[in-house]
Amino acid sequence: MTSTELKAEVYQLIDRLDEPFLKVVHSMLGTYVQQQEDPIVGYDLEGQPLHANEASEVYGKRVAAMKAGQKTSIEDLQKEAATW
Predict the structure, then answer these.
(1) What separation in angstroms does the CA of 1 have from each of 6, 17, 25, 49?
(2) Distance CA 71, CA 48 (A)
(3) β-strand partners of 49
(4) How far is the C-alpha of 35 from the C-alpha of 31, rounded, in Å?
(5) What is the pLDDT of residues 22-58, one digit of tens each?
(6) Residues 6+ away with beta carbon under 8 Å from 25
(7) Which of 28, 34, 27, 32 is nearest to 52 (CA)?
(8) Cα–Cα distance measured from residue 29 to residue 35, given in angstroms and rounded to the nearest whole number
């Protein structure tokens, strides 16, 4: 079956769905499209997903801060870690 044929059949099937199941299909398709546009590239310590766009922004800011000289020395890190 070609892509065009598949789409045509899907459209026909969608027309026959009741509203509750249509909402499920809508949610599923929305999630799939979002993941294709902004894939999950990792997870934080609480298990929350980290998306590519967010990771790029966060890591870009960190790189810029380091280039601007905003660094933590190993001594300062050890002092901070002692309070954990």
Answers:
(1) 6, 22, 22, 35
(2) 27
(3) 43
(4) 6
(5) 999 999 999 898 888 899 999 999 999 999 999 999 9
(6) 14, 17
(7) 34
(8) 10
